Structures are given as structure tokens and as C-alpha cells.
């Protein structure tokens, strides 16, 4: 199984994720002190799981459905790989690999994501 967290507010208006069965296993609402322009201060976090063989398709769909503004990403992990998905861009690297993580974080910084939000778990 792959597991991750999606911020519901990160999806663009009209977004549709299809043909990738997701199990929502946690829903939480939080207040975010590091919100930047274009991000609301309250977020809805959806913890999810899916089959590992859906990891690539899920990444493609997320990249196409994340809001292009606001500095958003979604991340999830399989047993061996980390996926960090930005609007129109997917980073995939072996879990724990510093170089892959650094490349994804550099991209996040380049699109305006503040440092405290670049804190995903590999």
C-alpha cells in the first residue's frame, strides 16, 4: 500500500481524480501559521492509502489536478519510493535519498512554498 496526505484546498476547482481507488483513513482540520498568499489559513487534511501499482497513475492525476497557484503539493510513499507531486511536475525517488528530496524541495521553493511546508516524510 502507498500512504499519503492530501490537502483538500490544494485541488483546483473542477478537479477530478478517477480510476484510482483511494481509501481515506483520516480527516483533520488544522490552522496553519505558515500559509502564504493564495493559501487559506485553515486546511482539510485527507490521509489516504491506495495500492502501490496505482502510484504512477495517481501522481499523473494529482499533477494535473493540483491548483497551479498557491504553492501546493501532495506527497505519498510506497514501501520503497517517495512521490512528491506539484502542479505539472512529479518527483519520485528512493525513500531516504537526500538528492531526490533536495531536488523536490528546490522545486517547491522555486514555486513559493515556504520552508516550514517542505517537511514531508520519506
Automatic annotation (TrEMBL):
Chain segments carrying region Disordered: 97-122
Domain of life of the native organism: Bacteria
Compositionally biased residues, Basic and acidic residues: 98-109
Protein name: Uncharacterized protein
Amino acid at each position: 500500500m502507498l500512504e499519503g496526505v492530501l490537502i483538500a484546498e490544494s485541488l483546483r476547482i473542477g478537479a477530478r481524480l478517477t480510476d484510482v481507488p483511494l481509501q481515506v483513513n483520516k480527516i483533520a482540520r488544522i490552522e496553519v501559521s505558515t500559509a502564504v498568499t493564495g493559501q487559506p489559513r485553515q486546511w482539510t487534511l485527507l490521509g489516504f492509502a491506495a495500492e502501490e501499482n496505482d502510484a504512477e497513475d495517481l501522481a499523473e492525476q494529482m499533477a494535473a489536478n493540483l491548483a497551479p497557484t498557491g504553492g501546493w503539493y501532495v506527497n505519498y510513499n510506497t514501501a520503497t519510493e517517495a512521490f512528491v507531486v506539484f502542479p505539472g511536475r512529479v518527483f519520485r525517488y528512493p525513500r531516504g535519498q537526500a538528492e531526490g528530496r533536495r531536488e523536490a524541495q528546490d522545486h517547491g521553493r522555486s514555486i513559493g512554498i515556504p520552508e516550514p511546508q517542505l517537511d514531508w516524510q520519506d
